[in-house]
Specification:
With about 110 residues, this protein is an alpha+beta fold. It contains four helices and six strands; from the N terminus they run ββαββββααα. The chain has helices at about 15-20, 65-80, 100, 105-110, and strands at about 5, 15, 25, 35-40, 45-50, 55-60. The strands form two sheets. A four-stranded mixed β-sheet has the order 1-4-5-2. A two-stranded antiparallel sheet has the order 3-6. The longest helix has 15 residues, at about 65-80.
Length: about 110
């Protein structure tokens, strides 16, 4: 069983994933050591898992292959499936296409 701490009362030497990332570190395969719970009104508490900072490893650097894959994925998110153009922004999942294709009547009025 992991230790549970109240919000802002975790001991030094423990950090969340975001805090580790801000330090340029990653958990590195270690198990969760403890958790912090923040109470909320009429709902369950927010939970953040804590890892040991001394066992954390440095973040792996981005390789040229990873940069290329990331650029390709971002291009795919910006490309409209209806008109096959780069919209210049990430296509909203709620529309599934660029705004121009989703609302063609608004473009004629302008």
């Amino acid at each position: 069983m992991t230790a549970v701490y109240c919000w802002r009362l975790a001991p030094d030497g423990l950090a969340t994933r975001r805090q580790l990332r801000a330090l340029g570190l990653r958990p590195g395969g270690q198990d969760v050591v403890a958790q912090v719970e923040r109470p909320r009104y009429r709902r369950g508490p927010l939970v953040a898992y804590l890892y040991r900072v001394d066992l954390a490893r440095p973040v792996r650097p981005m390789t040229p292959g990873r940069w290329a894959a990331l650029a390709k994925a971002n291009t795919a998110r910006r490309t409209c499936p209806a008109c096959s153009r780069d919209a210049g922004y990430v296509i909203p999942a709620s529309l599934g296409m660029c705004v121009t294709c989703a609302y063609p009547e608004d473009q004629c009025a302008a």
